[in-house]
Amino acid sequence: MKGKIIIICESWLEIDFKGCSPTATRPGGALLRAACSLAAKGREVVFLSELGPDKVGAIIADALTADGADIAKSDRHIAKTPVVLNIDGTSSRYGIQDDGEGFDITWPRVEREDIVVFGGYLAVDQRIRRQLWSFMTNVAEREATIVYVPDVADDRIKRITKVMPYVYENLEIAGRVITLPSDLQALFSHNDPERARRENFAYYVDDYSHLDDAALLADAIDKTI
To answer: Is 147 within 8 Å of 177 (Cβ atoms)?
Structure first.
């Protein structure tokens, strides 16, 4: 019997504009959308993130719970939930306003049959590293499956070398790695998945896959054994 899927990532609201007119609004982030998809398919999903009590946080929370994801253990105390505006193909992020207490998560109990997925900027963010790493160490001790999704093509990472020590730590603890379309260029300055497997990931994991479309992430996670 499959265990629960615990997904740890950032949350934000994306708003698309054409000129001055908004054209679409949706919860943002590949891992967040994967959480929604997996929960909608009937998987038990525990979603751990930072979601403010503001209107933006409520929109994201409602989308997750409508699909069946459990957000009860997420941090709901940040002052404001981030918003990303995509204006004619250019993205601008209006960032998180922390309450000063960091990543105030109620960590769930982890069983051996569970899958714990983490990634994105949150997985290399020094602000919450201590809390996150304490939990991930516990996950490894309980022998649950750990999936790392780098998702590091982020405008907040000005120099990839500054976060690579965290990336390598994440690779060391993971049992599986899934890269998204922009990851290889951001991490290794090339776009060859087989080269990345051979030169960069084989030392850390046997189970590596690259996705040409981030929309396939939910299915890739669901196939994790």
So the answer is: yes
Who wins on pLDDT, 197 or 156? 197
What pLDDT is stored for residue 95 in this prediction?
72
d(CA 139, CA 115): 9
Is residue 183 within a helix (H) or strand (E), and if so which, with residue range?
Answer: helix 183-188
d(CA 86, CA 12): 13
DSSP code per residue over 90-132 = EEEEE--B--SS-----PPP--TT-EEEEESGGGG-GGGHHHH
**Residue 49 CB neighbour total at 10 angstroms:** 29
What is d(CA 10, CA 31) in angstroms, rounded to the nearest whole number? 8
5-222: CATH superfamily:
Ribokinase (3.40.1190.20)
Which of 97, 98, 152, 99 has the alpha carbon at shortest distance from 123?
Answer: 152
